[in-house]
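Lab notebook, bench 4. The sequencing result for the construct came back, and we need a structural model before the next group meeting so we can plan mutations. Quick request posted to the team channel:

Model the 3D structure of this chain.
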Amino acid sequence: MKKEEQERRDPVCGMDLSDLEEYLTVKIQGDTFYFCSEPCAKRFKSNPEKFKGDPLIHLHDLWKVFHDGSVETQVLRAVNIHIWDGDFAVIIGASGSGKSTLLNMIGMLDRPTRGGLYLGEKNISKTTDDDRTVLRSSKFGFVFQQYNLIPWLTAYDNVVLPLIFSEKGDGLRRADLEKRFSDIGLANRGEHRPAELSGGEQQRVALLRALANDPEIIIGDEPTGNLDSVTGEKILDMLIALNKKEKKTLIIVTHDADIAKRADQVITIKDGKTIPGHLYHTKTYTE
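Done. Here's the predicted structure in token form:
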């Protein structure tokens, strides 16, 4: 492959195309663009000006390597990803592929070994721990599979806890908080502790906690994994509604190919690297 071809990247998903035997070459409005697959080309054609700009999140040649004595484990290897403002993005792959580690990088819960992690134009992989804490609490909301509620706090107190670290004010007014609980089907449950709530109720409390700071980006690591199918579908619908109606950027790790079909962007990861094809690969690599 020629040198100039080695630097070609998909403008939509950000994938480095240099290692691919095949990729799409498309002329649009007189310019030539290169895509890993037809879904990316289709997205670009739908809004060229958007995808010529800067993504909300950009991972550039990002690596995560763990060392245990002399043993080196490369969990993420030269990952290149774009995630766009207002997108619903799904990270999908087999167990052990590196998808949860990738989500931890994006959410600033862990640092890359090397490579760039950009939020807008800012390389957040280089920020101090204090700056990362402030940025994480103001920009991100997290919904985990395990709920991670503090057992000795009430549901109300669990929801307002992230505001302690936020720059967005002193917190929600009690009336606003009660309305949020009512809207999500938790009226009169705010003073209960996690052990007194069902799994679905705990996950809804976790969702309210993720939204307490009015974050731009909502991150979910298998957020419906511990729920029955009906409750899981309700939680997923709530998350997607936030994405569609309030334009929150939504990033979810999942094993579920059906969830991936509802996403704007699918990031398929195998053995620590992203692979092309997106929706075409969702069933293959989740078995």
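Residues 1-6, 279-287 have pLDDT under 50 and may be disordered.
Will bring this to the meeting.
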